[in-house]
Amino acid sequence: MIAPAKSDLVTVNVDGKEIAVPKGTNVIEAARLVGVDVPYYCYHPKLTVVGNCRMCLIEMGMPAVDPVSKAPIMDPVTGKQKINWIPRPQIGCATNASPGLHIRTNTPQIKDCREGVMEFLLINHPLDCPICDQAGECKLQEQSTGYGRGYSRFIEQKNVKPKRTQLGPRVTLDDERCILCSRCIRFCKEIAKDDVLGFVDRGSYSTLTCYPGKALANNYSLNTVDICPVGALTSTDFRFKMRVWFLKQTNSIDTESSVGANTVVWSREGVIYRITPRRNDEVNDTWLADSARDLYKPVRAADRLGSPLVSGSAATGEVAMAKAAEFLKSSAGSVAVVGSGRSSVEEQFLTRKLATALQASTHLVSRTGEGDKLLISADRNPNVRGALVIGLIAQLPKSTLGELGAAIDAGRVKAVVSVGEDLAAAGLTTAQLAKVAIVYLGTHANATTAAAKVVLPTLMTFEKNGTFVNQQFRLQKFFKAVPGPTGAVEDVAVLARLVAGCGGAAVAGEINTLWTTIAAEVPALQTVTFANLPETGLLLDATPWATLPFVEGETLHYKPAAQPASS
Amino acid sequence: MNLKPETLKRIDEVIPHYPVKRSAVLPLLHLIQEDAGYISKDAIEWIAAKLELQPINVYEVVTFYPMFRQQPIGRRHVKVCRTLSCALLGGYKTCETFEKEFKTHRGEISPDGEVTIEFVECLASCGTAPVVMIDDDLHEKVDVAKAKALSDQIKAEAKKR
């Protein structure tokens, strides 16, 4: 049985194909649903419609009705209702679906329109694609191939405009390439709420610029580079570093805060070149903070841990893991496990297993900061909720390990396992660190690795598969973009070995197999496997934790639950 | 911003004439240019604050209209038409005469601070070309001799002050 159309759906006809779309959908989106491409530059699904590029021109018509009786006028040739076509083309982006709307995008008039618009856009645009940084991801390049006339009739001099304006610390502007779509201006005004960009000298020499004395310096400035359809706005960091068609795209998650913005990591031959946002209408729309794009820099940092260390001297992974298990097993009962809100769900699951095997107390370190009400929340750990879901913790973490410090001073704790947490930074003193045997799993050298008995180098988010639970309790997965450094072993593999070495039941150290165990043991995740988790994430039931005083304030697509009045 | 009290009064009077404050940008720019002679960066920021806008929004408008000046000018503004009819009948010579008389160049303030001479587009009096507008007064059929006479008149008035 075919379900009846929902009441708020209207039927529109695009190039002869009927489709039901929600009322008010614009023609570009409606055409996309039937697989018809309507080219555009200035339109952006998350910004207001201005209609200034004129590329999305379409022919539009409505079913004819008798002006007096309102009875449909039939066409005797086809036997269908006659369509009154508007003789002039209309812009698709500002035309909303209404019942019976007819659209044509494949007529000679529209072909002419597109060729005309393309010709005008290319008049002052440099035709040096081979040396342009945007080549390969340039809308103007793609659409001049698809909809342009193919050769230029322009024999006059092109306008000369500023070529390398520094709009801000991270954005460089080539004004000659700008096609004046105004997406960046609208982004700054509407999303970043930092209205500093504008067109000056409007006319033949219209120039995009910042207000003199101000800079495009907000933490979302690089989104203007993402949405620029041409090579005008470029990332100062990325420009001319790599051709985009050489880069491999890997889906990932922003680890900067509990927002969990969806990202794409662009890499080539094991080197990451940039991070860009990935559209997820439930989480980050199409945006990403600038700070999140720098997170790959520590991957190749000088203080990256390369070789396992036992009492400060290099050892093989096998020896180090056996030694670590030996230490821990011998002090079972007086071990503390410090998990991390930066670990993936799988790692937190194994951290819990390890703590159970060692009858250890579990701790987590919280990281908080100011939320920016957009894509950075107050909780700077990406996966505190993962630890709650998986049962590693029952209460929200504290910012320092005061309890653990007291337990060490009292002699109740003899050994500490830290999964990537710098214990010194979390408030333990050097004296306390010296009193206990530390097993440290982590990526970079710090005060804790210097004091640790055994150091086991592990991988960063970009080097492994895994999942995070964001502030909405949305389970989202990230993938391995680049291989880890020599000597580093995947966290889950190390943890699984430690669990086995400490007398726990054997668990898989590989993510797909591990998920069968997780699904079996954690009721909230019983239908999940790593493979079937949707790209846009899976919303988990948050009710068991509804009463916890989470620190997040309001951000994009997230409203905190009303806090119970503090007593 | 050092605006005359009556300018401030007129500004406050003009803003509520519009449904949204932003629409008052243009009249405010006119009032301030009338008062101060040009639109300074301070003025742009003052207007933006007054109308709850960002400075860039006002700056866009200022750069669009050539008649909004971003630099100060002389006490008198001599606008010589250079559109077709005036150009054919000697508008360029008229302009050069003014330049010689005041020892200055187009677009600059004369050394005595008295005038700024500029070419402008059609002043809509092609039948009496070449025409010149000095501040708000239109002068018709300004040939070299009349340009000299006008210059002398300006100089004489300057001496009186």
Describe this structure as you would to a colleague:
The complex is a heterodimer of chains A (567) and B (161). The radius of gyration of chain A is 29 Å and the shape is elongated. Chain A has three domains: 9-106, Ubiquitin-like (UB roll) (Roll), CATH 3.10.20; 131-140 and 154-241, Alpha-Beta Plaits, CATH 3.30.70.20; 309-545, Rossmann fold, CATH 3.40.50.740. In chain A, the strands form six sheets. A seven-stranded mixed β-sheet of chain A has the order 16-15-21-20-19-17-18. Chain A has 13 helices and 24 strands. Chain A is an alpha+beta fold and 567 residues long. Helices cover 21% and strands 18% of the residues of chain A. Chain A has helices spanning 27-33, 108-123, 139-147, 183-190, 222-227, 317-330, 345-357, 384-390, 402-409, 430-435, 447-451, 491-501, 511-521; strands at 9-14, 17-22, 57-63, 83-85, 90-91, 102-104, 165-166, 171-173, 197-200, 207-210, 233-235, 248-253, 262-268, 271-277, 309-310, 313-314, 335-338, 361-363, 415-419, 437-442, 454-457, 466-469, 474-478, 538-539. Chain B is of the alpha+beta class and 161 residues long. Chain B folds into two domains: 5-64, Arc Repressor Mutant, subunit A (Orthogonal Bundle); 76-155, Glutaredoxin (3-Layer(aba) Sandwich). Chain B has a four-stranded mixed β-sheet with strand order 2-1-3-4, with helices on one face. In chain B, a hairpin with a 2-residue loop joins β3 and β4. In chain B, α1 (5-14) packs antiparallel against α2 (25-36), α2 packs antiparallel against α3 (41-50) and α3 packs across α4 (55-64). In chain B, 30% of the residues are buried. At the A-B interface, β9 of A face α4 of B.
